[in-house]
Amino acid sequence: MGSRPSRAPWSAPRVWFTDLNFLNTTRVKWTEQYQAYISTDQIISNGVIDASANVDINLGQTANVDEDQNLTPVSEGTPLAISIFNQSSMPLTAGISQMNNGSANPMCAIPLHGNMLDVVVPIEKVLLTFASNTVNTGTVIYKAYASGLLIDLTADNTRAVSFDINKGWAWDGGTWGVPVKANESLVPLLIEDA
Questions:
Q1: How many degrees, rounded to 5, is the angle at CA 124 between CA 112 and CA 175?
Q2: What is the β-pairing status of strands 12-13 and 108-112?
Q3: What is the pLDDT of residues 64-122, one digit of tens each?
Q4: CB neighbours of 108 closer than 8 A, spacing ≥ 6?
Q5: Phi, psi of 75, rounded to the nearest 5 degrees
Q6: At CA 48, angle to CA 42 and CA 52, rounded to 5?
Q7: pTM for the full predicted model
Q8: Which residue, 110, 42, 51, 47, is CA-closest to 82?
């Protein structure tokens, strides 16, 4: 899944989940349960950002960040979005996480300057791809390591795709599937302008 912060060059998609166990049929499922997070780690390519604080949050809420870097959810917010309001003067990295296999995994990383507000709208898209090297959940990734398939789940939360190591990704040809080439930039695919 991606998110919809401003497409500034410093906003970045992160590896949401990894799985080394594949069978002839593999199901990918998740729960739409979110967290807002903050971190003092910088956004760098292939870097991992560890949350220094996080809080469960719902769409339409705002997570307020105080001077001690505590997060408090409040009801006021942008409908269908998660807002993170830095009420301190310290610049941070912020983003949202979504539950997968019992843990909240980050989906994006955005600069959160002092006394500023980030608004993130989760989008119903997921990119499936393979990597020949080890990539940890939470890693900032700007380019695809291999060919992939961007799957839009807006109209239907179930999609069937297949992969052949020589032929690549296959699906029913619907517009919900968009092939992604190796080394293609992921920011315009997973980070959309509001």
A1: 130
A2: antiparallel
A3: 999 999 999 999 999 999 999 999 999 999 999 987 777 788 888 999 999 999 999 98
A4: 2, 3, 5, 11, 12, 13, 14, 95, 96, 120, 190, 191
A5: -70, -30
A6: 70
A7: 0.78
A8: 110
